[in-house]
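User: I'm preparing a small set of examples for a lab meeting where we compare how different chains pack in three dimensions. I only have the primary sequence for this one, and I'd like the structure in token form so I can line it up with the others. Please keep the answer compact; I'll paste it straight into my notes.
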Amino acid sequence: MEDQFNNNPTSGYGEGAGTAARMKEEIASKAADAKGKITDFGRKAAEQIDGRLEATANYLREHDLKEMVTDVQELAKKYPGQSLAAAAIVGFLIGRLFRSND
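Assistant: Understood. Below is the structure token output for the 102-residue chain.
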């Protein structure tokens, strides 16, 4: 057996190459599936963003500033913790915006 391997050192390469080719095809197939899923996810996300932007634009067209302030006050009363967190985040971002311009 040792003589047989020594006489033909490439004897196992054909089998290994076939396995590598199958693995390559499997990986390419999985990558194509993942690409399709990512594309679907991106399309769905874009549709959701589009719908929300349209709803926001309609809200802004249909309500004046006084109504918007009243709505924000009602939301703050209904969700005080989230309102404080949102205010802190907005304040932080505004602070960073002005700080980075110095």
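A couple of notes for your slides: The helical segments are 2-7, 13-62, 65-78, 80-100. The chain has four helices and no strands.

User: Perfect, thanks.
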